[in-house]
Amino acid sequence: MKIALVVPSALKMLPFDMVWSFFHAFAYLESRQDDLPFEIDHLEIIAPKTFPIDANRNMAVAQLIEKGFDMSIWFDADQTFPKNMIFRLLLNPEPIVAGMYFIKGSPFYPVIYRETKDSKKSGAFNWFNPIVEYPENECFHADMIGMGCVKIATKVFKDIAKIYGDEKPEFFRYGINPVTIEENEIDTPDLNKYRDKYLIRDVTEDVFFWKLVRDHTDYKILVDPKIQCGHITEIISNQNLFKNFYETRFAQIEKDNPEEAKKIKDSICRAEPAKKAS
Question: If you ran DSSP here, which 8-state letter would residue 222 be given?
Answer without folding.
Answer: E
